[in-house]
Amino acid sequence: MATNYDYEEAPATYDEAHRQDLGYDPNFVPDSVKSLVVHLYRHIREKNVYEIHQMYEISFQTLSDRLFKDTPWPSVDAVAHFVDNDQVFCLLYREMWFRHIYARLSPTLKQRIDSWDNYCSLFQVVLHSVVNMQLPNQWLWDMVDEFVYQFQSFCQYRAKMKNKTEQEIALLRQYDQAWNVYGVLNYLQAFVEKSNIIQILEQEKEGLEQFTATDGYDYSGGSNVLKVLGYFSMVGLLRVHCLLGDYQTGLKCLLPIDISQQGVYTSVIGSHITTIYHYGFANLMLRRYVDAIREFNKMLLYIYKTKQYHQKSPQYEQILKKNEQMYALLAICLSLCPQVKLVEETVNSQLREKYGEKMARMQRYDDEAFAIYDELFSYACPKFITPSAPSFEEPLVNYNQDAYRLQLKLFLYEVKQQQLLSGVRTFLKVYSTISLGKLANYMEVDDPTLRTILLTYKHKTHAVDSEGKVISNADVDFYIDDDMIHVVESKPVKRYGDYFLRQIVKLEGVINDMDRIKLD
Amino acid sequence: MGRERETPKEQQQVSYTVEQLVAVNPYNPDILPDLENYVNEQVSLQTYSLDANLCLLRLYQFEPERMSTQIVARILVKALMAMPAPDFSLCLFLIPERVQMEEQFKTLIVLSHYLETGRFRQFWDEAAKSRHIVEAVPGFEQAIQAYAIHVLSLTYQKIPRPVLAEAINIEGLSLDKFLEHQAANGGWILEKGHGRGQLIVLPQNEFNHPELKKSAADSVPLEHITRIFPILG
User: Fold this and answer.
1) Residue B10: its pLDDT value, please?
2) CB contact under 8 A, B154 and A496
3) What is the CATH number of the domain that holds A460?
4) Residue A114, pLDDT above cutoff 90
5) Do the domain assignments include residue A427?
6) How do residues B101-110 score in pLDDT, each as one tens digit?
7) pLDDT digits over A408-454, tens only?
8) Closest C-alpha to B153, from B97, B205, B93
9) For A147, A346, A410, B94, which has the most beta carbons within 10 A of its beta carbon?
C-alpha cells in the first residue's frame, strides 16, 4: 500500500508543500494522540459504543483543533504499533486521517488516490469478512457521507484540466480506476445488497425484525457495521444519483426508507438533513412541488427547534448551510406552486424574512424573475458532476461547470414554460365564472392562445406521482363548459387523522416512561 | 452477467432478463448492448420501460464514446409518448448539452415544448415536418392523442368540436367515426351546441367536476392505524 503522502509529488499549492515540509513530522506522535488511539482501540474491542462515540465526536475534534489545525495527523505507520497493528483499526484511522486532510487542508492528487485505495480496502473488509464491531451511527454515516463527498470533490478536481501539471496528468492516466463512477456506485450498491437491509426493513414492518427500534444497533452480540452502512448507502445512492442528474432513480434508491416516520436516518442529524435535502430537490426537478414543500417544511421546522443543541458540533456549519439552501429551494417551490397553507407558521415567517421580497419578484415572471430563479437555484443546488473520464487531448479545458449548467438550463426552461400561469391565477382568484372571450381580453391574448394557456395551467398543476396517479397541486382550480370558465377554490383540509395518531403514540411513550420510574 | 449460456428457454425470456439486470446490477458497463436492444424492442413491441432507459442514458453518461444518438432519439420519442409523465425531462437531464444541440434533438425538444404548453396545433404541424423521426416509432400518434385527451379531460366538461379536432389532429369523417367510437365505449356524449356546431361532453372525473373530489386529504392509510393497535389493546 502506498505511503500516506510523498514529498516528491506535486502538492496542491506551493504553500501546502511549504507547510508540509516544515514543522510536521509524520512520525511524531504526541502523548495525547497515543492516549486517544490506545483508548479508542480498547473501546472498539470492548464494543463500548458510548465511549467510542465520545472519543470520535469530541476527543478527535478537540485534538484536531488544538494540535493539528493546519497539519495532518501522525501517519498510520507511527501509531500502528500502539494498536497491535490491527488491520481494521488502521484502516479506520486512515479514513479519519484523510477526512482531516480534506476538512482542514487541501488534498494532493496522490492523497486523493490513496484515500480511494483506503476506502476500497476498508469496504472490502466489511463486505467480505466478519467484522465484529459496533460503531456509533454518527461514525458510520460520516464514512458514507465522506465517501460520496470525496467522489464529488474528485470529479470537480478532475474536470479542471486546464492548469494540470504534467505530473498530475500522468498520475490521472496511471490511476484511472481511482474514484471511478462504476466503483463508487457498485460499493454503495454492494453495501445495500450484502447487508440485506431492504429485506430487514420490510420484515420490520411485519414485526419479524428489529432494526429501527434499536437504532440499528445489534444487542445480540453481533455487529451493526454492515447493516447500518447498507442503510446509509441508500441515502448515499440518492445523493450520487442527484449529482448525476438522475432524480427518478435516486428517489427509487431511497424508497425502502419511510421518511414519513422516524428512523435510523433521523438518528444522525447529518443524515436526516442530507436525506430530506436531496429528496426535496429531486421532487422539485420532478415537478412534484407539494411533496418537496411538505418535506422541506418539516425539516426546516425541526432544524429551527433543535439547532441550538448542535452548536458545538463539528457539523454545525454544514447544518446552517443546508438550512439556508433549503429555504431557497422552498422559496422556489412556493413560487412555482403557491400552496402557502402547507407551510408551518415559524417556517413561513423565516421564509418571508429571507426571501419574501424575492418571491414576490419571482412571481412576476419577467426577466428579473428569471434572474432570481437562476440565483436561488445556483445557490441551493447540489454540486453536479461529470462522471466520465477526462479527455487528455489538447487543448485541455475546464468542464467542471458543464453538469451544473445543463441542470440550470433545463430548470429555467421549465420555469419559462410556467411563465403565464401566475397571470391566470390572479384572474381566477377574482372571478367565480368568466367567459373565455372576456378573460382573453383582460390577458391581452386571443381565444385560442388563452385555451392553450389554460391547458398548460391544468397540465402543470396536475403532477404524475411515482405510481402514475394524477394529483392536483393547484391552489385555484377551474373547469371549462364550452366557453365559460368556472372557478373552483380548494379549501384547506386539516389533517386530523395524522395528528391524533402521533399524539396517541406520544402519550403511550410518556406512560411507558412513567411506568419505568420506580419510586422509593 | 447477462447471458453466458443461452439455452432455448433463456432465449425466450430476454426482456425479463433485462429488467432483472436493471434491478440487480445496473452499474455495469457490460449490459449496455442488452439495454440498447431493449430500446429497439420497446419500439417494435410498443412496450415501455423508463427505468431501463434511464439506466442506459446513465451508462452513456459514464462512457460518452459509446453513445448512440439514434438510440437516444428513440428513447426520447418513447418518453414523449409517456406524457403527462415528466419522463422526457428526466431523460434530458442525463443527455449532454452538446448532444441536445443536434438537429434531431432540437426538434424533439420543440415538440415536447409544444405538448407541455398545450399548443397542439403547432405540435401536429411540426410533427408533420419531422415524419422521419416520429414515424420510426409505432404508436406515436395514438399516444399523443391519448395525452391530448387526458389534458382536455382535466380541463373541459364540454368542449367544442373544433378545439378537440385540433388537439387530436383528426377531422371530418375520421373524426365522426372517432367520436362515435368514444360515445359507444368511452362514455362521451355528443351534443348540439348553440348554433356553433357539435359539443362533446367528456366523462366526469374529479378534475373537471370538482364536486366529485373525494376528501382524500384526511384519510389515513391502514398501515398507520395498525401501528397503534398494540396501544389500543
Assistant:
1) 46
2) no
3) 1.10.10
4) yes
5) yes
6) 999 999 999 9
7) 999 999 999 998 788 888 888 889 999 999 999 999 999 999 999 99
8) B205
9) A147
User: What residues are paired with A122 via a beta bridge?
Assistant: none
Q: Min CA distance, B8 vs chain A (Å)?
A: 30
Answer yes or no: are the C-beta atoms of A344 and A335 closer than 8 Å: no
Smallest Cα distance from B13 to chain A, Å: 24
Give a yes or no: residue A342 inside a domain. Answer: yes
Q: Please tell me if residue B99 touches chain A, with a CB cutoff of 8 Å.
A: no
Closest chain A residue to B160, measured at CA = A482
Instruction: Please give the Cα distance from A19 to A13 (Å, whole number).
Output: 10
Residue A110 lies in a domain: no
User: Of the candidates A247, A448, A495, which has its C-beta nearest B218's C-beta?
Assistant: A495
Of B61, B120, B157, the CB nearest to A387: B61
Question: Closest by alpha carbon to A283, among A463, A460, A492?
Answer: A463
Answer yes or no: do A416 and A430 share one domain. yes
Map out the domains of chain B as residue ranges: 16-138, 156-210
Q: Which of these three, A340, A356, A388, is where a domain ends? A: A388
Determine phi and psi for A490, rounding to 5 degrees.
Answer: -85, 130
> Which secondary-structure segment (H or E) carries A478?
strand A476-481
Q: Which of residues 129-158 of B touch A (CB under 8 A)?
A: 151-152, 154-158
Joined grid coordinates for residue A487: 372557478
The answer on A507 and A473 residing in a single domain is no
> Could you tell me if residue A245 is left (phi over 0), alpha (psi between -120 and 50 degrees) or otherwise beta?
left
A60 and A74 in contact (C-beta within 8 Å)? Answer: no
CA–CA gap between residue A342 and residue A356 (Å, rounded): 16
Q: What is the pLDDT of residues B15-51, one digit of tens each?
A: 558 888 898 889 999 999 999 999 999 999 999 999 9
- Full residue range of the structural domain in which residue A497 is found: 491-519
What is the least distance, in Å, from the CA of A319 to any CA of chain B? 28
- Split into its structural domains, chain A has a count of 3
With H, G, I as helix, E, B as strand and everything else as coil, classify residue B190.
strand
Which secondary-structure segment (H or E) carries B199?
strand B197-201
- How many inter-chain contacts (A to B, CB under 8 Å) are there? 150
Q: ipTM, 2 decimals?
A: 0.87
Q: What is the 3-state secondary structure (H, E, C) of A64-90?
A: HHHHCCCCCCCCHHHHHHHHCCCHHHH
Which superfamily, per CATH, for B16-138? ARM repeat; domain 1 (1.25.40.250)
Contact A458 B155 (CB under 8 A): yes
Which of B113, B208, B228 lies nearest to residue A505, judging by beta carbons? B228
Cα-to-chain-centroid distance, residue A6: 33
- The type of residue at A509 is G
CB within 8 A of B91, min separation 6: which ones?
Answer: B53, B54, B57, B75, B76, B79
Q: Does A368 lie in the same domain as A307?
A: yes
What is the nearest CA distance from B171 to chain A, expressed in angstroms? Answer: 18
